[in-house]
């Protein structure tokens, strides 16, 4: 910068017009600051020093503050010291002036030097200014070029940004369009659950990124419709699945029960002692094997390859629908719909087939059980695989309700069945069904109770069958002792019936057993009944004691009700002969003795030993039953014997006015004695008391009937010849009684049966009235069994017979006889009167 740029006249010399201060600076003491509000009005007593110090304070306040001096001035004016304050203020101003002058004097030379240096820098400053102007012009030119290029660059950058934004928008739209295309493809392929997941991703992740585009809004509007379509399609799949499982439930149940049957009957083979028995073979029928219901044994490999029962149903539809409805937020509605539909299907499955158990309806019952088993096998699989769709509580509740209805239906069917074989098959079907459901964790205790009820019905059916068996045995029996001609026949009888007799074994052939063929047949059929009962009980999970008690109870019922009733009916048959009754009595004796062996049979079958197991073993009531039947049979024998005696006595044709006896016993009585001898000869195998009772009752009945004939209304008149003929008959009877037709009587025991009749005949025929009257009432009387009334009746009838002979009055002997009769009658009537008065 040149000197001409700045004229010299513009720069003044700082030394000019500067006066040198002559006053010395005066030090100002700084008084403490004081608030003007604390000042009070001056008083006369204020001293000058106090005023001066106060004014100093005011001045210090003015010096320390740039504004707001009003309070200070007010305090001055309030004191009325403005003049004094003004003077003191002027004095302070002068002090400051002196201070300034003193400072200027001390720094004046330095200021002059600074001005001179500044004048020297002016040239350089001019040069610098020119250079700055040149740089500025050049910078302006370059800036204009730069601005032009910057505008072009900005336009290019804007185009690039727009392009990038367009590309970014397209890149953001492409995933949305791809997902939407994928969604449409999945919907077309009916892959609804992946489509629902794709729809959820599209709605949550992709569409919010392109929400400003109109196509995104269109897609958003179509999403609810797509969800509705997916829900409708899923519901259609559910309905198809429910229809499929309803149709496939019987197949599933059949497969499950087949597997259970194979497992059950492999684990529990029948006892060796029962494998060769065919309990009902004598009826011409055999039981259906439960394995046969599910195919032959050779099909085992095929069933193994078949796999699990639930593999027959494709559960993917229900899983898929469960996931779909869960994703749709409608899981509760889906679960409720599924459970309600399955409950309806359960009700349909539990509709029992009509009719009772028959060979054809057994297949219907089997299909019925297959359907129920298949339903709950499927539900159990859904419970274990589809979490929450079926709960254990709801499934158990449904099973309890179904089990109650199922039990009632099976009870109704079983109650109509009268075939033991069908009941056995029915029982095994229930066992397989129970085993199947128990394998899947269901409670099957009520089915065990049902089996116990079916067992009772089975026993009743067996009872009815054995009624026919026993009646057939009784009808076919000839009621004659069994006669065997060879050791083989003898061994066959002893093998069937436990009979042992050393004396019979020593006898040569032919040998005769005391009982008829009825005994071994009845005994063998009772054993068959025991085995038949065991066939039903062998799979019921009963202990040895329970099985033993069951067999004993059933056998007791068979003996005391079925066999007892058949025997009671048998002995009451009107056409049954006396010899048949005797043989029946003998048969019951041997059956009673063999009832002990029935207990051994039951113990051997069950293997139950109460002494070792600490239990109580019931006793068969066969002995008591056979005793009761035998007692009734004995009474029937007595009645039959008396009836037969009455038949002979009905042939009696006494001529009570017979003048002379025939000299021999009456023919009917001879035949009667022969019959009695033959009959009592057949009593050899009867117990002694039975034969003795029969013989005693027969003699008593004969004596009673003969006496009744003598004293009856038909014999209104008696002749001595008729009494003598009756005496001959009584003598014949006494000879029979004295011959001891049945062993074991005391001497004269049978003769006492005819004692009444004998004393009466002796008294009348010997006309020993003197002895009668003399010994009357004495314990040792010869005619103690003849009552006065009986004697009166006989004497009157003798007198009436004599009156028929009109010429008897002409004979003295007859007149004396008549007088004697009158005398005897008079005395007898007196005795009758005495007896009546006493």
From TrEMBL:
Q: Where do the Exocyst complex component EXOC6/Sec15 N-terminal domain residues begin and end?
A: 88-257
Q: Does the keyword Methyltransferase apply?
A: no
- Transmembrane helix: present as a keyword of the record? no
State a GO cellular component annotated for this protein. Answer: exocyst
Which InterPro entries does the record cross-reference, listed alphabetically?
A: EXOC6/Sec15, EXOC6/Sec15_C, EXOC6/Sec15_C_dom1, EXOC6_Sec15_N, EXOC6PINT-1/Sec15/Tip20_C_dom2
Show the ranges annotated as biased composition (Basic and acidic residues). 9-47
Q: Where is the Exocyst complex subunit EXOC6/Sec15 C-terminal domain?
A: 446-797
Sorted alphabetically, the keyword list is: Coiled coil, Exocytosis, Transport
Report any one BP term from Gene Ontology: Golgi to plasma membrane transport
- Specify where the region named Disordered lies, as residue ranges: 1-47
Q: Pfam families recorded for this chain?
A: EXOC6_Sec15_N (PF20651), Sec15_C (PF04091)
UniProt feature coiled coil, ranges: 803-830
**Protein's job:** Component of the exocyst complex involved in the docking of exocytic vesicles with fusion sites on the plasma membrane.
**Family stated for the protein in its record:** Belongs to the SEC15 family.
What protein name applies here?
A: Exocyst complex component
Provenance organism: Amphibalanus amphitrite
